[in-house]
Design brief:
Shape: elongated
Strand order of the largest sheet: 2-1-5-4-3
Largest sheet: 5 strands, antiparallel
Radius of gyration: 22 Å
Strand content: 5-15%
Helix content: 40-55%
Order of helices and strands: HHHHHHEEHHHHHHHEEEHH
Number of helices: 15
Distance between the termini: 46 Å
Structural class: alpha+beta
Low-confidence stretches: 282-308
Amino acid sequence: MDQRSQIRDFLTSRRARITPAEAGLPSYGTRRVPGLRRAEVAQLAGMSVEYYSRLERGDLSGVSGQVLDSLARALRLDEEERVHLEDLARAAGPAPRRRRPGTTVVRPGVRRLLDSMTDAPAVIMNGRCDVLAFNALGRALYAPVIEAARGDTPNLARFVFLDPRSHAFWGDWERAADETVALLQAEAGRDPFDKQLTDLVGELSTRSVDFRGRWARHDVRQYHKGAKPLRHPVVGTLHLYYEALALAADDLTLVGYSAEPGSDSQDKLRLLSSWAADSGTPAPSRPVSGVARRRRVVFSGIQAGETM
């Protein structure tokens, strides 16, 4: 990912979404492109047109926090977009500090914590949307994602955009697609030097029109909580709430799911837990790549139309 292009595309996409009326500015003449002109952004940010043009060309090197704050106010950035702008500026500095490579290893202590969560599905993810570990119920819930990976580390972005089964699994595929790309955009701002992330974005951009269009929007988000409808091939539709908890020492995220007490979805989670126990779903502490053969055995029944 070219750093200057990332900066340029982010800034131009943010000013394109603001009309002069929304910014409290008069509008004169016909506009060839939507949104504010560079001169209008410069006016709102209290800087010269020449200086803002330099920023929009992708040169954030040496820009002060005060200038970034002014730019964020002019472009009406929300908190996550403001953080993304700061990440882009930090990476554009004269001596950008590279983050350590994104981990693919889950510490034994974190695995024990994950395994102790027996009544709620839970998974461990990194910023590239690799799903690195599951508890027993999480493995059962994410069974279609695991099966699609064919023995490799499951990646939610690849599943969403490259596997047709994702449209059946996500109750709201459009939303899942938007959220996945927004997470990857935020991660790219934090670490534009992550080669694995760059390769992933390149692969998805080449193979998926849906991904390519969303990536070009440059939306960024961090999803810490919310609700998701999932359609599981065994128990049907579940309406689940999720909480995403940062594991700061490892630069990973634990995502846990729960259902409304007394709801149909809670009953289905119990049914899913029973199915996982009866079907021989592998123990959560086993490496993903070591259970590919057993997963295929378990899923042969599902794909043949078995239900519970």
